[in-house]
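--- STAGE predict ---
source: upstream dedup step, 1 unique chain passed
mode: sequence only
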Amino acid sequence: MIYRQRLWTRITHWAWTLCLFFLLLSGLQIFMARPDLYIGQESGFAYDNTILSIGAYMDGAAMKGRTILFGQAFDTTGWLGAVWEGDRLQPKSFPSWLTIPGYRDLATGRVVHLFFAWGLAITLLIWLVASLINRHIKELFPSGDDIRHLPREAADHARLRFSREARYNALQKLSYASVLFIALPLIIATGLTMSPGVNAWAPWMLDVFGGRQTARTIHFILMLYLVLFFVVHIVMMVLAGPFNELRSMITGWYRADPESE
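--- STAGE serialize ---
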């Protein structure tokens, strides 16, 4: 048994879990107000810069959902665009269980989103300061040995061969670093870029991200990346031994293979 996860790592881990849950569902509530993504400074009927659009249309007497991605249309009836509410299809981007609140309420969605966005940013700052003090941050940067062992570790994971190492392996370091040092800072920055108040204070952010609409698109893509990371994270935890992994994130103690200590 080794003490693997420090107190501040555990606290911020669960704080992020809470914040990201509410940010995802409230963000989808906000997205429903304009379920389209664009590249560029502006959007509207006079522009041909849409890359994603979710909506409903009538096919005779039947309502259908349609999602258009890069000009390619997909029938998403029942899932996106036209979703089931009781025994009837309704023109709605997402099912009620995927949004906070479950009914259409843009104002409440924005309040919830902004509250947990501040929580996410503050938690990231606390984690960064604590990790610099206790040097946990050094454990997340891949070394030369990690890079050399990366193909073997990827092959082992593909074969579902897992080892309980005392330290993070190369795949863990790369995935955690991509979230903590790239995805989370970028999703905060693009969120700020969509704020007119921030635009007035720091107009250069619009230039950095290629306009408010491009920032919104990047924000959405980063959300999808974080959802993918979460799914893979849960799958890996279950396959590697959920009791041992959860214990390390609750108590800090982790049972490692003797040869890895």
